[in-house]
Write a structure and sequence with these properties.
The chain folds into two domains: 39-111, membrane protein fhac (Ubiquitin-like (UB roll)); 145-318, no CATH class. Helices cover 27% and strands 27% of the residues. The strands form three sheets. Strands 6-5-4-7-8-9-10-11-12-13-16 form an eleven-stranded mixed β-sheet. It has 321 residues and is α/β, with parallel strands linked by helices. It has seven helices and 16 strands. 19% of the residues are buried.
């Protein structure tokens, strides 16, 4: 008798639960027909800097959605279709839509964040931190560093990312550099915002050392030589700063770079500068080279001009750390 009573109780509870589920299903279905979408909320994950840009862009795109959303009964809103519509923009990692109990459509966006824009021949595209390509006409992007160059299977734009990230984190370089020209993996050229010279950073190794060498050159040499005295400043060699004199007939530093004339090499030794000495540098044109100590701040002097019958001059400038 007790066993039958327990079975009856279990079946009664089960029937009650099924009845409750059926009633709630009917009620929810009815409520969905009665209630309408009250609004749209855009949520952007993982991108505070681009949050407002993406919110505005997604809102504008939803206004262009083929079917009305706000004010429409909830059961008529096709969230998978909205996700598919927004996913056509390949600058999103993912798009998810859901409707809250209060009738609001939530659109959750995980953006694909570009770190630089690449110009390669006639092509242009963005890439993210993982090297994934994004078409250049993608919407909702803020300004990012520009990289141009000749890339191939062995040297891809992803190989420039360490330098791009370093510039982004370094306050001085971030303000100084406007773009990067990647001639090859061993010659990454930084182009400053102010016209005057370019900086050959070499490869992406020993970036802190190269930054210190560049800073030292800016502090100890440029105040006396001037911003436009040199065409190219190279810090690609460890412990050295090699400065290429400007060809006075060329005014635009964005053209081809000349690194085989009038090199002024500043080494960065631990010991104090040695006394001046002169060395001969034989070649087919019988060039003459001399090594001198840099001018003192109290008595700045101009570098000697080459004689009409002589080749270009190479001067050695020594700066201490």
């Amino acid at each position: 008798m007790t066993v039958n009573r327990h079975k009856l109780l279990k079946w009664s509870i089960l029937v009650a639960l099924l009845a409750y589920a059926a009633v709630m299903s009917v009620w929810a279905h009815r409520e969905a027909h009665l209630h309408v979408c009250t609004g749209i909320e855009i949520q952007v994950d993982g991108s505070q800097t681009m949050d407002s840009v993406i919110r505005h862009g997604v809102t504008e795109e939803l206004y262009k959605y083929p079917r009305k959303i706000v004010g429409v009964p909830l059961h008529e809103i096709n969230t998978p279709d909205i996700e598919k519509y927004l996913s056509k923009y390949n600058n999103f990692e993912s798009v998810n839509c859901m409707i809250t109990s209060r009738g609001k459509l939530i659109v959750r966006i995980v953006p694909l964040i570009p770190v630089m824009r690449v110009f390669f021949g006639d092509n242009s595209y963005y890439i993210n931190k993982d090297g994934k390509h994004v078409v250049s006409n993608a919407e909702f992007f803020n300004e990012v560093p520009i990289v141009s160059g000749s890339f191939n299977r062995n040297f891809t734009p992803k190989g420039v990312l360490p330098l791009v990230n370093y510039i982004k984190k370094d306050a001085m370089l971030h303000e100084l550099v406007s773009m990067i020209e990647a001639k090859d993996a061993e010659n990454l050229i930084l182009i400053p915002r102010i016209r005057g010279h370019v900086i050959n950073f070499g490869d992406t190794l020993h970036l802190d050392e190269k930054k210190r060498a560049l800073t030292l050159f800016y502090r100890q040499v440029l105040p006396y030589k001037g911003w436009e005295e040199y065409d190219t400043i190279s810090v690609k060699f460890r412990g050295q700063v090699v400065a290429t004199r400007r060809d006075k007939t060329r005014l635009n530093h964005a053209e081809q770079y000349i690194e085989d004339i009038d090199l002024e090499e500043g080494t960065l030794p631990e010991a104090p500068p040695a006394s001046a000495n002169t060395t001969a540098k034989p070649d087919s044109t019988a060039q003459k080279a001399s090594t001198t100590t840099p001018p003192s701040p109290a008595k700045p002097t101009s570098p000697p001009s080459p004689a009409p019958s002589e080749a270009n001059t190479t001067e050695g400038e020594t700066t201490t750390t």
